[in-house]
């Protein structure tokens, strides 16, 4: 009978990797405490350290102001036409 592989959430992996990075406890202590293999803790720590530059190097996507405002201006124009039509129909032209 084979044991099912345990799947860990990313938050759990990050927590264990950060504890390993801090170095307050040994890898073996962390592995025992969190009930995972020491090799796994080392791997998560390595992944953390490899991924850190991406966090600070990632640029925000550029937003085109025209792409944001064009639909709004279209909506304003449509609503203004509807308002004018309703005013005309009701006889309250100002």
TrEMBL record:
Gene Ontology MF terms in the entry: DNA binding; transposase activity
Top-level taxonomic group: Bacteria
Record-linked Pfam families: HTH_Tnp_1
GO terms of biological process kind: DNA transposition
Family label: Belongs to the transposase 8 family.
Protein name: Transposase
Source organism phylogeny: Bacteria, Pseudomonadati, Pseudomonadota, Gammaproteobacteria, Oceanospirillales
């Amino acid at each position: 009978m084979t044991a099912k592989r345990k799947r860990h959430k990313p938050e759990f992996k990050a927590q264990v990797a950060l504890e390993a990075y801090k170095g307050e406890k040994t890898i073996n202590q962390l592995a025992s405490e969190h009930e995972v293999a020491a090799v796994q803790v080392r791997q998560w720590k390595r992944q953390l350290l490899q991924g850190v530059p991406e966090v600070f190097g990632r640029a925000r996507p550029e937003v085109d102001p025209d792409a944001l405002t064009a639909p709004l201006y279209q909506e304003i124009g449509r609503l203004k036409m509807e308002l004018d039509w309703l005013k005309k129909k009701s006889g309250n032209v100002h």
